[in-house]
Specification:
The protein is α/β, with parallel strands linked by helices and 313 residues long. The chain has helices at residues 22-32, 47-52, 60-64, 77-85, 90-93, 108-120, 150-163, 175-204, 208-216, 223-234, 243-260, 265-281, 291-298; strands at residues 12-16, 35-39, 55-56, 69-72, 99-102, 124-127, 130-131, 143-147, 167-171. The mean pLDDT is 96. It comes from Hydrogenophaga crassostreae.
Length: 313
């Protein structure tokens, strides 16, 4: 029997951002034995982590004080800028020789700008956005895309391997960001398409459960259909990913495409659809609620018995 390789937990970690994604990622580090100091706008988000041995800091500077590595998982480029550049921010507080790991889905140009400032101050940067679904963060199976200098990646790979399953090195800073927003764009396109694909048979009179199973076993299947379609059929829609985040990510990918001169016809149309859904259902509505647009238009809810209210790994 092959023995599991011991993880070097000697690196001290600061963790900023304990939302639906950040909290379970951070918990994996704590469970593995890393020394972690955390902060968030709401200390209640740190409850499980503090019980597990994490230390709390009331501010970013405190998180950075003894850290070798600082990880940020934040909801928007604006918040990332504030955390990095604000008074007592990461760039002013993390020691020379430290590493900043940005796991947020953020603006690529802004990330490059912040990485350049970090480099001037002797701080290395890795972009490490994750993909595969928030529900996989808690089990350590989420995929991590890595951009930055390879020696830096190799230095902190034990940290990334603790949080994620498949760790894919993409290249220099920017490469991971581009691929990350493309994966999200595909997920949102698939979500709209899955809703349409289930609605047409439902209007004809086919049991939505039978339709779900037929699509899952067909050439038209997708990861999104296997997972998020279940949340539509249960009526919960709760994928732990808001409409506001979906619109942010679609905006990021379409901005990159415009700069590169790549026409994203489906991406652009999907962005319009999600903006309309956000306008109707609110910023905090769940991204699968985009299907409600079709349900309203057809005066028919897509529902079937036995489907879960949330996803588990």
């Amino acid at each position: 029997m092959t023995q599991a390789t011991a993880i070097d937990t000697s690196l001290k970690i600061g963790f900023i951002g304990l939302g639906n994604l950040g909290e379970p990622l951070c918990n994996s580090l704590i469970q593995a034995g890393f020394s972690v100091t955390v902060t968030d706008l709401d200390q209640r988000h740190a409850g499980r982590l503090l019980k597990g041995g994490a230390r709390w800091s009331a501010d970013v500077a405190g998180v950075c004080a003894d850290a070798d590595v600082v990880i940020t998982v934040l909801p928007s480029p604006a918040v990332s800028r504030k955390v990095m550049e604000g008074p007592g921010g990461v760039l002013a507080s993390l020691r020379r020789g430290g590493v900043w790991i940005e796991m947020s889905t953020t603006d690529m140009d802004d990330l490059k700008r912040l990485a350049a400032i970090a480099e001037e101050r002797g701080i290395a940067t890795l972009e490490c956005p994750v993909t595969g679904g928030v529900h996989l963060a808690g089990s350590g199976e989420i995929t991590v895309l890595v951009g930055g200098e390879k020696p830096v990646f190799e230095q902190v790979e034990p940290i990334l391997s603790t949080m994620g399953g498949e760790i894919i090195y993409m290249g220099e800073i920017g490469c991971a960001s581009v691929v990350k927003v493309v994966t999200n764009m595909l997920a949102f396109i698939h979500l709209v398409a899955a809703g349409e694909a289930m609605m047409l048979p439902a209007k004809y009179g086919v049991d939505p459960d039978a339709t779900y199973r037929a699509i899952r076993a067909s050439s038209g299947n997708s990861f999104v259909h296997e997972t998020e379609s279940q949340l539509i059929l249960s009526g919960s829609y709760n994928v732990k990913f808001t409409m506001d985040l979906a619109c942010k990510d679609l905006g990021l990918v379409n901005n990159i495409a415009e700069k590169l001169g790549v026409p994203l016809e489906l991406g652009g149309l999907t962005q319009q659809i999600f903006r309309r859904a956000r306008g109707l259902y609110g910023s905090e509505a769940q991204s699968p609620e985009v299907a409600r647009l079709l349900e309203k238009a057809c005066n028919l809810e897509l529902r079937a018995d036995g489907y879960p209210s949330e996803l588990v790994a």
